[in-house]
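Regression test case RT-17, inverse folding.

Input:
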């Protein structure tokens, strides 16, 4: 295979959840740049449509609450009808509530787990059959450094991301025979609306919070594109014998 063929995603269809902003939007943008047709999923129609329009004609938005199975099923049918295939799935949607188990409300536990973990289950459940019927593909679940180590006042988020890491391994085992590779990318602190919202939740000055978050060996915050490039590697043929892996992209924060 020529280098150009290894690097290009031309002719492939990628579905990205949580794609209206942050890391999800960065992944959708980069995968499109590399040639893929991209379907952006998000619960926010206004932000999702704007994100797709910003990418251009190779991108389209589909509104979908990934915690609702009926919506995930309808989305999968629409993707199949329009494209006939799915080659790449990036499960990126997530929310965070900065509370300990003592202070956390049950409804906040539920939304963090439902969006960050259940959503991966439901979207994957309905897109894997399309992917496998087309000869296989690549699923990239977005985890977190807090999926491999704990963090303060983030009990539900740590639980969800720890689940993502091990769910990735289980999915890799189950679907490898169908030539569906499943891997995880675990970012460190990345400059996104989610990270900035944490400052508000904790009552910390945003500038102070971002400076503190950049305190790591590479001495800067991550950018969505940093994460997107790792996702691209796992989505492309460059990683054809990689499955069940977790790639930590955090500027050395967990080193």
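Golden output:
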């Amino acid at each position: 295979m020529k280098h150009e063929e290894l690097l290009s995603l031309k002719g492939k269809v990628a579905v990205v959840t949580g794609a209206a902003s942050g890391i999800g939007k960065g992944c959708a943008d980069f995968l499109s740049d590399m040639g893929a047709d991209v379907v952006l999923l998000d619960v926010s129609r206004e932000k999702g449509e704007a994100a797709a329009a910003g990418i251009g004609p190779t991108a389209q938005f589909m509104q979908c609450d990934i915690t609702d199975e009926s919506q995930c099923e309808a989305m999968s049918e629409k993707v199949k009808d329009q494209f006939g295939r799915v080659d790449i799935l990036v499960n990126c949607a997530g929310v965070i509530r900065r509370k300990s188990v003592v202070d956390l409300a049950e409804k906040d536990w539920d939304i963090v787990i439902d969006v960050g973990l259940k959503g991966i289950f439901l979207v994957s459940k309905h897109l894997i059959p399309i992917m496998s019927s087309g000869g296989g593909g690549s699923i990239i679940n977005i985890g977190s450094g807090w999926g491999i180590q704990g963090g303060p006042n983030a009990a539900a988020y740590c639980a969800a991301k720890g689940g993502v890491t091990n769910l990735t391994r289980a999915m890799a085992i189950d679907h490898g025979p169908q030539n569906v590779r499943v891997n995880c990318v675990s970012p460190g602190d990345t400059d996104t609306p989610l990270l900035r919202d944490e400052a508000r939740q904790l009552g910390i000055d945003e500038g102070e919070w971002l400076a503190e978050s950049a305190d790591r060996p590479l001495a800067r915050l991550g950018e969505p594109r940093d994460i997107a490039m790792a996702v691209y590697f796992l989505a492309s043929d460059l990683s054809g014998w990689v499955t069940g892996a977790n790639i930590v992209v955090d500027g050395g924060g967990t080193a």
